[in-house]
């Protein structure tokens, strides 16, 4: 039997009617049985659902947001389907369910579980529309709910995969189906042991593609993006970028670790372990080769820039005239871990620990309240973390022009700076 291949289409590739049409054209000559297509929510739907949740939490009226979101999807359907097509009833139904779920009680205590339930609608709605459109185009595909095979723990918003159970479900439920049909499913979502919806972390659909690929022993994964492949910087932020024709798993993982948002950071590891190549290709130029990420890529030393926005620099200063010791670091890391906060950069001085973290709702307040008895805490918000791999000294000043530097760190291969616009 031919090996499975996995395609992933993110939000940008299904952001409007013509994007969905383009997706169908990409699949027209490529779709075959044994293929899994993973789709994300359409455009910025997840952000829109997050805004609805924020309004609900603060007791504001969010009905207009829901109407706008429904109209956004309805407009896409009107562009793709004739009046009276069953997709319109599906859409009505899903928005009815979403509104019912939004009626339920939300507090800071059940926020994460509630969040997962609500934001999952983005992927469910998108996958319904895309599946209906493909079938309407006679590209026959089976719609499957990812929550039936992607098993996780109950760590809502950052759920961890139960790899064994996921593999079993993929092999027993989906493998037989794939022998006859391609499957279309959702990225980003899974279910916990009680069957409750979980999510894998923002932008987690790339990771879903990797989970399904390893669980189905796939031959390859292709993620379709609005860029020609993996470049040496985000082309939306930096001019004169260069595309990598190939990258080693390790290099790609390093780029994503520092924040290159083109691939979700958890995607590479399972693929590397299983030796499954990852192709990053452009949905705007599907015939172009893109970037191949695999084991035997030749090593390069091209300077590579990664920019992470919305960063907070927090400094913890000891107040009792002692110096920083292991116990201080341990204490800070323990609290960070309990809040599921990842450190993007760390710097130690004799009397302080400085960390850089992502901006996340409520988290800074919680961190400060947990540590304010031990340390004098200062923080700066609205910062950017700039990482340059294989830096060339002469190019650094131009990247810092017009910025104030708050923290800087360099090793032989990596230069990092926390900066703020002047
Ligand atoms: N090194 C990089 N190479 C290519 N694209 C990058 C890089 N770093 C960041 N990006 C950004 O990643 C975007 C594609 O990823 P993303 O928006 O998450 O896709 P999707 O949500 O459609 O899956 C590009 O539009 C680009 O702005
Ligand atoms: N829709 C989710 C999951 C995702 O991965 O989306 P995208 O493939 O558009 O990055 C998010 O926005 O976080």
Automatic annotation (TrEMBL):
Official protein name in the record: Aspartokinase
Cellular component, GO annotation: cytosol
NCBIfam families: asp_kinases
Entries under InterPro entries matching the protein: AceGlu_kinase-like_sf, Asp/Glu/Uridylate_kinase, Asp_kinase, AsparK_Bifunc_asparK/hSer_DH
Enzymatic reactions: L-aspartate + ATP = 4-phospho-L-aspartate + ADP
Organism whose genome encodes this protein: Algoriphagus lacus
Keywords from the named record: Amino-acid biosynthesis, ATP-binding, Kinase, Nucleotide-binding, Transferase
Pathway in which the depicted protein is active: Amino-acid biosynthesis; L-lysine biosynthesis via DAP pathway; (S)-tetrahydrodipicolinate from L-aspartate: step 1/4; Amino-acid biosynthesis; L-methionine biosynthesis via de novo pathway; L-homoserine from L-aspartate: step 1/3; Amino-acid biosynthesis; L-threonine biosynthesis; L-threonine from L-aspartate: step 1/5
Domain Aspartate/glutamate/uridylate kinase: 4-282
PANTHER family: ASPARTATE KINASE, ASPARTOKINASE
Family designation: Belongs to the aspartokinase family.
The EC number(s) this enzyme carries: 2.7.2.4
Single GO MF annotation: ATP binding
Keyword field contains Transmembrane helix: no
Pfam families, alphabetized: AA_kinase
Gene3D superfamilies named among the record's database cross-references: Acetylglutamate kinase-like, Aspartokinase, catalytic domain
Enzyme class: transferase
GO BP terms, alphabetized: homoserine biosynthetic process; lysine biosynthetic process via diaminopimelate; threonine biosynthetic process
């Amino acid at each position: 039997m031919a090996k499975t291949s996995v395609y992933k289409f993110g939000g940008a590739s299904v952001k409007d009617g013509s994007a969905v049409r383009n997706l169908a054209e990409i699949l027209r000559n490529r779709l075959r049985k044994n293929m899994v297509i993973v789709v994300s929510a359409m455009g910025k739907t997840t952000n829109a659902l997050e805004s609805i949740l924020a309004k609900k939490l603060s007791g504001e009226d969010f009905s207009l947001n829901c109407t706008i979101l429904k109209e956004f999807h309805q407009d896409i359907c009107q562009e793709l389907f004739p009046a009276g097509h069953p997709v319109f009833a599906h859409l009505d139904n899903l928005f009815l369910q979403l509104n019912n779920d939004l009626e339920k009680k939300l507090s800071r205590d059940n926020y994460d579980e509630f969040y997962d339930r609500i934001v999952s609608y983005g992927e469910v709605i998108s996958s319904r529309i895309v599946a209906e459109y493909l079938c309407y185009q006679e590209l026959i595909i089976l719609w499957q709910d990812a929550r039936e095979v992607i098993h996780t723990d109950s760590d809502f918003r950052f759920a961890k995969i139960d790899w064994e159970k996921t593999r079993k479900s993929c092999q027993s439920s989906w493998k037989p189906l794939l022998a006859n049909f391609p499957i279309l499913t959702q990225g980003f979502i899974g279910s916990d042991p009680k069957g409750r919806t979980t999510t894998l972390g923002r932008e987690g659909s790339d990771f879903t593609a990797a989970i399904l690929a390893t669980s189905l022993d796939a031959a390859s994964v292709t993620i379709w993006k609005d860029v020609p492949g993996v470049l040496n910087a985000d082309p939306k932020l930096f001019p004169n970028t260069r595309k990598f024709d190939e990258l080693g798993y390790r290099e790609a993982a390093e780029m994503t670790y520092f924040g290159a948002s083109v691939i979700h950071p958890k995607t590479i590891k399972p693929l590397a372990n299983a030796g499954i190549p990852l192709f990053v290709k452009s949905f705007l130029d599907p015939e172009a080769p893109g970037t191949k990420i695999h084991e035997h890529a030749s090593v390069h030393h091209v300077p590579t820039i990664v920019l992470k926005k919305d960063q907070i620099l927090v400094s913890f200063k000891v107040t009792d005239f002692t110096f920083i010791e292991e116990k201080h670091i341990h204490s800070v890391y323990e609290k960070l871990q309990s809040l599921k906060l990842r450190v993007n950069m760390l710097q130690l001085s004799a009397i302080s620990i400085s960390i850089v973290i992502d901006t996340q709702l409520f988290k800074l307040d919680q961190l400060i309240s947990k540590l304010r008895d031990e340390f004098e805490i200062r923080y700066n918000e609205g910062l950017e973390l700039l990482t340059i791999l294989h830096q060339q000294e002469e190019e650094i000043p131009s990247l810092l022009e017009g910025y104030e530097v708050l923290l800087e760190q360099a090793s032989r291969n990596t230069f990092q700076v926390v900066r703020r616009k002047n």
